[in-house]
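User: quick one, fold this
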Amino acid sequence: MNRMERESATVGKMIAMYCRHHHGSRQGLCDSCRMLLDYAVDRLRHCPDGEAKTSCRKCVRHCYAPAHRQRIREVMRYVGPRMIFHHPLAAIRHIVDEYL
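Assistant:
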């Protein structure tokens, strides 16, 4: 699995965890979270840096629209501390990618 696929999978797991807790979605995602995931994956797919991309937090260009950027920050703030307990391998890979 390449970096972009890992990033897409990780953001999918993060949004799913957030949606389950905040919107009570047990089967899949609510419409709002599905739209956020589709947007995030589309942004990753069109990232000009490709496989050489840094984490979005370190990126010099912000490709998310302000409203989407705020929503993804909310998701990451909530899920970040919990990720290690629910998806430990994805969390460790994300941390390693963050510092490479």
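User: anything notable?
Assistant: The chain is about 70% helix and 0% strand.
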